[in-house]
């Protein structure tokens, strides 16, 4: 076999990692190391920002009672930040 792992799920995961590494190498050769590093930093910052917003919304929901949650969901004010 061409994989180190046994079992369909594990082999599937191993191939996913192999293809991910291959695609990273391709992107790096096309964009160059500096541009790729800059793009990855931007992506990480975006993901962290989204995570912070989601965490804040989750904490806000946890402090609301059922009636307030229904009100916010019906009025979409929570989703829109209002």
Number of strands: 0
Helix-strand makeup class: mainly alpha
Proportion of β residues? under 5%
Helix content: over 70%
The number of distinct helices, counting runs of at least 4 residues, comes to 3
Radius of gyration: 21 Å
Largest sheet data: none
The unreliable regions are none
Describe, in plain words, how this protein is organized in 3D.
The chain has 82 residues and is mostly helical. The protein contains three helices and no strands. It has helices spanning 8-31, 33-63, 66-75. Helix 1 packs across helix 2 (33-63).
Overview in brief:
By secondary structure, the protein is mainly α.
Outline the fold blueprint:
Layout: H1 8-31, H2 33-63, H3 66-75
Keywords:
mainly alpha; 82 residues; 3 helices
